[in-house]
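Exercise 7b. C-alpha cells:
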C-alpha cells in the first residue's frame, strides 16, 4: 500500500465469503494485517547473509594469497637448508640442520593445508590420489611435537 507521503506499507489480507441458503453470496468477512516490519526484517536478514557471504569470500581469498606469499620464502628457506646440508658439517650441525629442515617442512605443510582450506571453501578443491609410506609419515608427525607434548606433561608415542 502506497501512503500519501510516498512511504509504503505491506499488508496481508484474508477474506472469507459466506453464502445464504440459496447459495448466493451473503456476507464477506476478513482482516488486514500490517506486515511491514516482518518484510523489513526479512530484507535485513537477506542483506546480512549476503554481507556474511562476501566477508567469507574475502577471507578465503586473503588466505589463498597469504599462503602463496608465505610459501615462497619457506621454499627458499628449505633450499638454503639443503645447500648448507650439502657442505661439510660435524654431527651436531648436521642434526641441527635436519631439525630445522623438518620444522620448515612442517610449517610448509601447514601453509599448504591453509591453502587447501581456502580452496575447499571456494569450491575449487581438487583431490589427488597419491601413495605414501604410513610408518615414516606417522614417525615424522610424532617427531615434530615431543617438546610440546613434554611441556604439557604428555608422553607422545605412536604404534603402526
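Sequence design result:
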Amino acid at each position: 500500500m502506497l501512503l500519501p507521503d510516498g512511504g509504503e506499507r505491506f499488508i496481508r489480507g484474508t477474506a472469507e465469503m459466506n453464502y445464504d441458503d440459496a447459495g448466493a453470496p451473503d456476507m464477506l468477512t476478513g482482516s488486514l494485517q500490517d506486515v511491514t516490519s516482518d518484510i523489513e526484517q526479512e530484507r535485513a536478514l537477506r542483506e546480512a547473509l549476503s554481507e556474511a557471504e562476501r566477508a567469507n569470500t574475502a577471507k578465503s581469498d586473503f588466505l589463498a594469497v597469504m599462503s602463496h606469499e608465505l610459501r615462497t620464502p619457506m621454499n627458499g628457506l628449505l633450499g638454503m637448508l639443503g645447500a648448507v646440508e650439502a657442505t661439510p658439517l660435524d654431527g651436531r650441525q648436521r642434526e641441527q640442520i635436519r631439525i630445522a629442515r623438518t620444522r620448515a617442512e612442517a610449517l610448509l605443510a601447514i601453509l599448504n593445508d591453509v591453502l587447501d582450506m581456502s580452496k575447499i571453501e571456494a569450491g575449487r578443491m581438487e583431490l589427488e590420489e597419491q601413495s605414501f609410506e604410513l610408518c615414516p609419515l606417522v614417525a615424522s608427525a610424532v617427531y615434530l611435537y615431543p617438546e610440546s607434548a613434554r611441556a604439557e606433561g604428555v608422553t607422545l608415542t605412536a604404534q603402526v
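Instructor comment: The mean pLDDT is 88. The beta strands are 11-19, 25-34.
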